[in-house]
Write a sequence for this structure.
């Protein structure tokens, strides 16, 4: 096959390549950098899983040659494996290498907000505006990620199962969601694409490690960082089948811009492609995938969102209204993806047939694809695998040579895994939480003084709602996972805090029978589990709460009702005629009511059952159950009518759901009295908190919006508003405190913008603090801000609009093509068009909005004041070279803190006029300043950040002109601190010639009320093959009379006639052409006929297509207008489509051809040619189970092991445990072992989620409650269930233990702190007391032997009353061959070489192979200059200890065999021994 290098073409070359692609139909071939005479030869694997496979030599310059050689070896099956995304090892079936095994496609995991350490939502990270912090977050995530990965050949890059090693970290989301109602708004850094691009590149660089010197100029990476969800993922609206609309400028200036810096640097290895369509073409095969690959240093690996590739060929998902699917089958869909240089792949894994089917289609030449094109589609994927060391030559242990990150990997590292226990990781997590907080208002009330009385109210004070992609289990650390209430109590003192939930308390009366709704007090479970609600005519007792319900208003028209009778939630059943009761026990509040603070009741809140309480015209309310979709599918739009049910009172006075769903809008409006209730307010919102105004010194009111209530993945919000009760709570509490001359502070807990105008304008509100989800230290950081331990430095990275009138209104075009439902089926609370992904047309983001704004982009206050001076800017620059802007910033306040310096630019003379950005963020820096300190802040400006998309060149340009550069504290003009003008010598928007056909979409710079559609599938396939990024793919469709689209700088000289390619599937109408403005006198008018669908077979594929046909209509140019003008295409009816224009020029009678740009043919179409994871956690068996298949560690005949839930006797042992900082998690097990032949048996203990999340070790429990840790590892069994795999030497009582002990003499910054923490958490080493470890104390022989027994899980027999504590230890050590009788004096200090002997014997006893030949011993010891000091007895043990990483020697190459170890060193060594044993147990 030919040697083809990946073509690296900069963004300034885009138009050249696009034009060349349209002309030649293929990429240009670049000669290989390795000549034929000096062709690189690669070694091949000898034996092992990948026997015969070429191996990479570790030289980055040989990458392309290696990939060519590799695909020579695999044949077409190789590239097909990666294009289909077939994960895990693949066995070749064809050609000379048939039967050989090759690595599968990249395996992937979502690590959006962390791996082990829990970081803030991405919106919170963005609000830090701190590039260095993002790098540090990436570094933490990268170190944690690699410690979970395996790198040994054949074991790395495995998807699923017990030995998964997921090479890709999908984390740095580049989605540019212009509308804050988008459900996944929390998953984006910023609404500014350049800012997002900087932060994405910084975080991806830190995570991947490409900035580390060992990376060899960014070639090697420790994990493949993937962004999500390139290229357009605007909202959750009809998520999987959506059709988002975005004009050409929006696609190139906005939607795709954020991902490109990371691709260009190589920090981003790939992307998860987005669901749905943009302008009618599935995103997974969009030509924008070509753009990403063109700009990527090593190409772009891609993987679809969950089963997103299957949707391309599934019936009734991506149909166009004529065909019921986009591609005829999976294979043809994959061919189209390959032409777009994208990959398929299913999370559940592909089948071998996917590969062979694709090979067959390529060999047939479907869609004209060639073998070389398949290879080039797969090349970026293999490039990333090479960068991970997967193809490297290996040493004898299978470890890849020349891969610089191998020593950090799970299967190679000798140190504990990198995780949240590391102090530096905790420090970064705390800074991230702190810097995510934004101060929105302050009249100097903040910071608060500690010790005064606080009236805290609002449900969000005592709840903690995590975002979808936060780390699954919040780390169990001090100050981590707390509710805000608890953190405030800890900060201010429990005696100084009062709390009230703040919600209304109501009663309900049935309108049908005029009886009161009440808990069934006569039910046996009335006061506990609850029962079905009933109505009663009895008057409730004065002290009764049976008829009282507290309302928790979540916003988005939803609420939960809490029965005050039993503190349980009212259910929201999903079935017909279902009982409605006060029986739901969802955990919401987290802090114990006594506030003694020994524990919290969890670290995560769940949303209770939600109900829709809807007002009726007669003043009553109706309650709808099951009115919200809670899953990820995106079908929330139609959920309400299809699944919502009225709650009504049946003939027996009981509350039930209706016998059928609402069904239709008409049915929902028909509400009988049995479905109506009269609501009475017994206690108003905030009444309890307001009553505290006379006693307490200030109020803190918490309001917000849960991230998963009508929000998050699979759901969009319907409104900016929080629950109306939140606003009432603020108004009532702040008014009461203001009446007493006291202050009210509002805390907003939401991971997306909410409506704040009323609160900001409330004169009784003194301060407002905003915090999105902040990761593990969210509440602690918030309390630090409130009480002055940290001065807030966050700034908003999105615009906070004052009202819903900022957004485009809903219309019939929000329903995707091919979907049979209409607007009448959509939940009536939705009133916004969520499919408009074009900020220019919709007027959204700070760059384009004219709407009223409460808080502008970049806004945020400080506890200090800053002044700006001496703005220094060059007088003129080119549009090609970066330049520096400097300004002096002074901290004029009294608080040490940081300022975010923001530099904006505007070009008021842009050719795009009012459709150009009002301003753009050009650069930003965050600078720390002491009080009174002045610093010169230098901002590096790359003119490309100011580039716009020249729709006539089809390329980015920096427009020439005089730009105003503004230093500001936000994007608002009112916040500009200094400004100067700068002349940029750039380019002008090109003039559009009429000598060639013009696709209207490609050349449009502005639009009004239009949507876009694919012109034809044949054209799309042909242009993808031509590698055309811009290629006449789309047509423009009108939404109403008066819709228009504008083309800039068209030279009309000589225009006589104009032909248009048009279509209409409605009633037809007229389209007119205007110069300079849409209401000028028309130059031409076309009558658009109704066009019929056409059916045809694509000429180079065995694929039949049915789609809307186009017709050509021609009109005379009615004016002699000449020169250059903007052209406006104006539609005078809805549902008119236009593809292209073709002008006849009067002077030359030149007809440039048909109006489209389709290079293919479509003989029967009027438009042709040219018209264009894991399994469920295991549960402890209730009755016990027996497994005859357990094997002991020596390979002896299997023992019979029975694992049962602990009996009462076992429970009694648990109660006798009396150790500080040690807690039993879950129920104990009773293990019986029969017929044990060897020393140990490997046993699996099933665990529930609580045990899996919280246990640090498993221990044997002796009669007196003594604990003996046993070797164990949390893993998965063959069914994917979580289990503890443990090494046992006896039956008895076992329990999961959480050990969290701190020692006053262990400095958190000491090198040994992490080792002591881990050894202590594993119970391998104890302190000399509950509070002291004595880390520098020397280690005795008895202590060493005790620790060695601990690491084996061996319990010494109890010492007699007249014995020393160590006598039983010595006996056990002799019994288990850790020492000879009398070999060691118990209180003598243990030497390093003797410790090596003991520990290697322990490893050998556990089954770890420690045998070495004499030659191997010499090899492992040869680098140590004092090896001759080893005794003959200790020499083999020390060599084995060095090989296994137990001992490492001193930095100057000494073993120091006769020296002793401190207790801190012992902790480090024993953790390494434990990790070696644990490797045997990982299933």
């Amino acid at each position: 096959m030919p040697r083809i290098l990946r073509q690296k073409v900069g963004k300034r070359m885009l138009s050249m390549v696009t034009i060349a692609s349209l002309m030649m139909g293929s990429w240009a071939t670049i000669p290989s950098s390795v000549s034929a005479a000096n062709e690189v030869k690669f070694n091949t694997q000898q034996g092992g899983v990948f026997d015969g496979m070429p191996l990479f030599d570790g030289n980055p310059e040989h990458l392309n040659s290696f990939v060519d050689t590799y695909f020579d070896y695999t044949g077409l099956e190789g590239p097909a494996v990666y294009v289909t995304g077939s994960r895990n090892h693949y066995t070749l079936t064809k050609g000379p290498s048939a039967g050989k095994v090759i690595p599968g496609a990249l395996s992937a995991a979502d690590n959006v907000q962390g791996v082990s350490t829990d970081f803030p939502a991405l919106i919170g990270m963005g609000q830090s505006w701190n590039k260095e912090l993002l790098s540090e977050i990436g570094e933490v995530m990268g170190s944690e990620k690699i410690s979970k990965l395996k790198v040994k050949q054949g074991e790395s890059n495995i998807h699923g199962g017990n030995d998964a090693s997921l090479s890709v970290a999908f984390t740095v989301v580049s989605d540019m969601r212009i509308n804050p109602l988008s459900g996944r708004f929390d998953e984006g850094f910023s609404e500014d694409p350049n800012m997002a691009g900087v932060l994405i590149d910084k975080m991806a660089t830190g995570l991947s490690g490409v900035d580390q010197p060992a990376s060899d100029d960014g070639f090697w990476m420790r994990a493949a960082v993937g962004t999500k969800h390139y290229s357009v993922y605007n909202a959750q609206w009809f998520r999987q089948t959506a059709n988002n609309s975005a004009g050409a400028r929006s696609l190139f200036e906005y939607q795709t811009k954020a991902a490109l810096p990371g691709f260009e640097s190589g920090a981003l290895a790939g992307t998860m492609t987005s669901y749905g369509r943009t302008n009618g073409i599935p995103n997974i095969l969009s030509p924008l995938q070509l753009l990403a690959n063109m700009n990527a240093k090593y190409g772009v690996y891609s993987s679809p969102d969950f089963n997103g590739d299957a949707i391309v060929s599934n019936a009734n998902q991506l149909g166009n209204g004529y065909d019921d699917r986009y591609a005829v089958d999976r294979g043809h869909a994959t061919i189209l993806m390959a032409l777009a240089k994208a990959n398929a792949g299913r999370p559940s894994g592909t089948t071998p047939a996917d590969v062979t089917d694709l090979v067959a289609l390529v060999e047939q030449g479907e869609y004209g694809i060639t073998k070389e094109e398949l290879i080039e589609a797969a090349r970026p994927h293999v490039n990333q695998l090479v960068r991970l060391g997967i193809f490297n030559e290996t040493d004898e242990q299978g470890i890849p040579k020349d891969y610089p990150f191998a020593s950090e990997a799970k299967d190679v590292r000798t140190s504990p895994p990198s995780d949240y226990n590391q102090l530096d990781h905790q420090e970064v997590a705390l800074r991230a939480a702190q810097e995510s907080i934004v101060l929105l208002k302050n009249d100097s009330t903040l910071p608060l003084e500690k010790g005064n009385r606080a009236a805290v109210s609002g449900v969000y004070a005592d709840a903690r709602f995590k975002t979808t992609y936060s780390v699954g289990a919040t780390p169990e650390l001090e100050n981590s996972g707390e509710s805000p209430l608890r953190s405030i109590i800890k900060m201010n003192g429990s005696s100084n805090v009062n709390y009230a939930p703040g919600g209304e308390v109501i009663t309900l009366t049935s309108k049908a029978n005029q009886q009161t709704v009440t808990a069934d007090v006569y039910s046996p479970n009335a006061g506990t589990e609850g029962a079905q609600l009933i109505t009663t005519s009895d008057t409730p007792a004065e002290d009764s709460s049976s008829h009282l319900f507290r309302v928790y208003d979540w916003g988005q028209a939803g609420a939960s009702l809490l029965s005050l009778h039993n503190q349980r939630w009212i259910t929201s059943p999903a079935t017909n005629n279902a009982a409605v009761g006060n029986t739901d026990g969802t955990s919401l509040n987290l802090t114990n009511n006594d506030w003694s603070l020994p524990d919290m009741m969890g670290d995560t809140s769940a949303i209770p059952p939600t109900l829709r309480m809807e007002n009726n015209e007669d003043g009553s309310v109706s309650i709808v159950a099951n009115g919200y979709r809670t899953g990820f599918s995106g079908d929330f739009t139609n959920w309400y009518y299809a699944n919502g049910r009225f709650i009504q009172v049946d003939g027996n006075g009981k509350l039930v759901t209706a016998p059928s769903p609402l069904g239709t809008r008409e049915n929902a409006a028909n509400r009988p009295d049995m479905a109506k209730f009269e609501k009475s307010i017994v206690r108003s919102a905030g009444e309890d908190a307001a009553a505290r105004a006379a006693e307490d010194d200030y109020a803190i009111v918490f309001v917000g919006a849960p991230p998963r209530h009508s929000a998050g993945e699979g759901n969009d919000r319907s409104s900016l508003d929080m629950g109306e009760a939140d606003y009432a709570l603020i108004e009532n509490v702040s008014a009461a405190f203001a009446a007493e001359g006291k202050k009210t502070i509002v805390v907003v807990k939401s991971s997306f913008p909410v409506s704040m105008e009323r609160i900001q304008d409330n004169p009784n509100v003194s301060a407002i603090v905003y915090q999105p989800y902040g990761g593990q230290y969210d509440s602690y950081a918030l309390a630090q801000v409130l009480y002055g331990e940290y001065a807030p430095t966050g700034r908003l990275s999105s615009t906070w609009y004052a009202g819903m009138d900022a957004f485009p209104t809903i219309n019939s075009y929000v329903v995707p093509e091919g979907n049979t439902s209409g607007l009448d089926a959509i939940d009536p609370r939705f009133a916004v068009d969520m499919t408009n992904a074009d900020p220019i047309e919709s007027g959204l983001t700070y760059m384009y909005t004219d709407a009223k704004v409460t808080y502008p982009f970049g806004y945020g206050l400080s506890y200090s004041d800053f002044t700006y001076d001496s703005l220094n800017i060059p007088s003129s620059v080119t549009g090609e070279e970066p330049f520096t802007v400097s300004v002096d910033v002074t901290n004029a306040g009294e608080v040490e803190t940081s300022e975010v310096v923001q530099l904006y630019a505007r070009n008021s003379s842009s050719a795009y006029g009012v459709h150009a950005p009002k301003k753009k963020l050009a650069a930003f820096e965050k600078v720390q300043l002491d009080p009174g300190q002045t610093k010169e802040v230098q901002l590096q400006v790359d003119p490309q950040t100011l580039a716009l998309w020249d729709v006539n060149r089809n390329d980015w340009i920096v427009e020439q002109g005089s730009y105003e550069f503004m230093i500001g504290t936000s994007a608002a003009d009112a916040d500009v601190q200094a400004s100067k003008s700068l002349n940029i010598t750039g380019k002008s928007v090109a003039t559009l010639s009429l000598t060639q056909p013009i696709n209207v979409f490609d050349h449009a710079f502005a639009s009004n009320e239009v949507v876009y559609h694919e012109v034809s599938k044949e054209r799309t396939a042909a242009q993808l093959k031509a590698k055309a990024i811009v290629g006449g793919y789309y047509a423009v469709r009108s939404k109403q009379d008066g819709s228009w689209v504008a083309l800039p700088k068209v030279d009309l000289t000589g225009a006589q006639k104009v032909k248009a390619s048009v279509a209409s599937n409605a009633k037809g109408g007229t389209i007119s052409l205007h110069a300079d403005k849409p209401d000028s006198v028309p130059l031409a008018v076309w009558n658009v006929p109704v066009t019929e669908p056409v059916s045809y077979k694509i000429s180079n594929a065995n694929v039949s297509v049915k789609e809307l046909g186009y017709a050509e209509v021609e009109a005379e140019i009615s004016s002699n207008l000449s020169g250059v003008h903007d052209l406006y295409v104006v539609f005078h009816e809805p549902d008119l489509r236009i593809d292209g224009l073709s002008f006849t020029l009067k002077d030359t009678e030149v007809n440039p051809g048909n109006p489209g740009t389709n290079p293919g043919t479509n003989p029967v179409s009027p438009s042709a040619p040219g018209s264009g994871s894991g399994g469920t956690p295991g549960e402890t068996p209730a009755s016990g189970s027996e497994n005859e298949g357990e094997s002991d560690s020596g390979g002896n005949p299997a023992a019979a092991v029975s694992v049962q839930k602990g009996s009462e006797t076992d429970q009694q042992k648990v109660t006798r445990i009396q150790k500080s900082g040690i807690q039993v998690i879950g129920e104990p097990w009773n293990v019986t072992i029969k017929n044990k032949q060897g020393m140990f048996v490997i046993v699996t203990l099933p665990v529930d989620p609580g045990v899996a999340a919280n246990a640090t070790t498993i221990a044997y429990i002796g009669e007196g409650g003594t604990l003996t840790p046993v070797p164990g590892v949390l893993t998965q069994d063959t069914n994917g269930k979580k289990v503890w795999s443990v090494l046992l030497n006896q039956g008895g009582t076992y329990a999961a233990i959480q050990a969290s002990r701190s020692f006053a003499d262990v400095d958190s910054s000491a090198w040994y702190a992490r080792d002591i923490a881990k050894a202590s958490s594993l119970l391998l080493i104890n302190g000399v007391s509950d509070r002291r470890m004595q880390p520098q104390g020397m280690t005795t022989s008895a202590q060493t032997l005790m620790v060695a027994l601990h690491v084996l899980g061996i319990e010494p027999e109890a010492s007699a009353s007249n014995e020393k504590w160590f006598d039983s230890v010595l006996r056990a050590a002799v019994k288990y061959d850790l020492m000879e009788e009398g070999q060691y004096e118990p209180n003598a200090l243990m030497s390093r070489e003797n410790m090596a002997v003991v520990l290697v014997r322990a490893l050998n006893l556990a089954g770890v192979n420690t045998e070495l030949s004499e030659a191997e011993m010499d090899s492992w010891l040869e680098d140590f200059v004092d090896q001759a000091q080893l005794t003959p007895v200790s020499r083999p043990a020390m060599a084995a200890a060095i090989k296994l990483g137990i001992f490492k020697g001193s930095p100057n190459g000494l073993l120091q065999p006769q020296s002793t170890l401190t207790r801190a060193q012992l902790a480090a060594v024993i953790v390494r021994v434990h990790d070696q044993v644990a490797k045997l147990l990982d299933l």
In short: The domain at 506-551+560-580+609-683 is CATH 2.80.10.50 (Trefoil (Acidic Fibroblast Growth Factor, subunit A)). The CA atoms of residues 1442 and 1448 lie 6 Å apart.
